[in-house]
Amino acid sequence: MDTSQLLSRARSGDPSAFEALISPHEDMVWRVCYRILQNHEDAQDAMQDAMLRAYRGIAQFRGDASLKTWLYQIAMSTATDLYRKRKIRLADSVDALQEESHDIPDSSPLPEDTIYRRQRQRAIRDAICALSDSLRMPLELFALEGMSYPEIAQHLGLPLGTVKSRIARARLAVQENLQIFEDSAEPDRTSSVSKNERRTRA
Prior knowledge:
By secondary structure, this protein is mainly α. It has nine helices and no strands. The protein is 79% helix and 0% strand. It is globular, with a radius of gyration of 21 Å.
């Protein structure tokens, strides 16, 4: 059975046809979800939710973009939504602990440089998640999926010049947000390094 026949049956509500359509793209959906969430359990939840959204929306899929692109957009949106919700839940939990005057447990202290690198990685991920879909998708395909500009243009159905422009704008936006993080983090980091140097000399 070819793709058009599978798509027709999937649109009619045939689960087996839908499964046959999406199974070749499941690894891609998983990579997108895990790359954003950095957690196996959350990525699995996002992947399942993305597949459910795709199943519910397959009847409206008209093939303007490729099936892979359509699934990629759903995975990105689903994982980003979960990531933002998780950040809100974490912030609420921290606020609650502070209001109750509880100390946040720190069973495994990390060197300042390790903490800084992790915070920087999180800042980059936050900056990418904050991009509009039109900017985020080309950047993800280029930087994380390893696609060339022509491949992205074909994949998204966009002119080559538009792809190049959007990736440039996306990079600039991420760099600007990262600079804000580094400007705010550097004084604390410098202070920590100075303290360590004083302890070493002592």
